[in-house]
Design goal:
Helix 4 packs across helix 9, helix 6 crosses helix 7 and helix 7 packs parallel to helix 9. It is built from eleven helices and no strands.
Length: about 250
């Protein structure tokens, strides 16, 4: 019974996520759908700015805390309806709150042991986290390559301190959200101008620049992996050559 109470918050979040997916609620936030209604929706935002801002925060918070896939459409929606700066701020607040709820629920569930083996994602992240807790946690939040909800649960499993989790999520998550929000704002403007959704969207500067930014962030793990391998080779002596040995090799 004690274990069940510990897992109850996480079970409730999973149930809410399943209900949201089954209801098709995220379909209303697709960029094409929002673009066709953006005049009416922006009028509502202008008429009810506080309620609209709270709605964006709550929707993102629910999406992040339940760990459902496709949350990026909610970030796009913030950019399309509120603009880049307000949309980034609102989505970042919702993301931080939602991630904190999921983190605390996961930490409660894992407080008395996992009752099983170590998940694959935790195993992959454990060495880097234990070696460089702050920089590695911030790195995980900066790179869109890693699943946001999965990383949150993994950090809870690794018993990441709450202050470190909040700091990394607020800083790293906001940087990533800024690119996604800018992409959403660019999609809204371009769809409104073109009047349709097509591959030509990706030829516009307001769309392609945020995509390049996200692509650069996604390349960070590859670059760091290569640097880490070079560093290990150098430390092991493989990268250091003996000049006398090289000279001796050239002698007849």
């Amino acid at each position: 019974m004690k274990r069940l109470r510990a897992f109850l918050p996480l079970i409730i979040l999973i149930a809410i996520g399943v209900a949201l997916l089954a209801s098709g609620a995220l379909d209303r936030f697709q960029p094409a759908q929002l673009a066709t209604e953006q005049v009416r929706l922006r009028a509502l935002v202008a008429e009810y700015p506080v309620l609209s801002a709270l709605a964006q925060i709550v929707v993102v918070m629910l999406g992040i805390s339940t760990g459902i896939p496709g949350i990026i459409v909610l970030i796009f929606a913030g950019g399309m309806l509120f603009g880049i700066i307000p949309g980034t701020i609102l989505s970042a607040i919702g993301t931080t709150l939602g991630a904190t709820i999921l983190f605390l629920a996961s930490r409660s569930a894992f407080a008395h042991g996992s009752g099983g083996g170590v998940p694959l994602l935790v195993e992959k992240l454990r060495a880097g986290y234990h070696a460089f807790p702050f920089s590695y946690t911030l790195f995980l939040r900066l790179v869109p390559f890693f699943p946001f909800g999965g990383v949150t649960v993994a950090l809870a499993w690794l018993r990441c301190p709450l202050w470190l989790f909040l700091t990394a999520t607020a800083i790293g998550g906001t940087v990533m959200i800024a690119f996604e929000t800018a992409l959403g704002a660019g999609l809204a403007e371009t769809i409104a101008r073109e009047g349709t959704v097509s591959l030509d969207l990706f030829a516009h500067k307001r769309v392609i620049l945020p995509m390049v930014g996200l692509a650069v962030l996604a390349l960070v793990p590859i670059v760091l992996g290569q640097l880490r391998r070079l560093s290990k080779r150098w430390d092991s002596g493989d990268g250091i050559r003996d000049p006398q040995a090289e000279e001796g090799d050239t002698r007849p």
